[in-house]
Design goal:
single chain; mainly alpha
Length: 72
Amino acid sequence: MRTVIDLPDDLRAALDRVSREDDLPRAELVRRALRVYLKQRARKEDAAFGLWKGRAVGGVDYQRRLRDEWED
């Protein structure tokens, strides 16, 4: 699929420089950069999964306790 993106001049120039240095088309460099970005982003999302595992109090009970403080 083709996608049109707008790049500021400084990013385009940097992309062109890397394209020449690595002898790769700009499109391939953009694809690679997106893969790296999406992989890093997925790791951040996965890092939160199971945060409450092994805790003495469950997330809902903890939330209720905090909200009970507002009542006092």
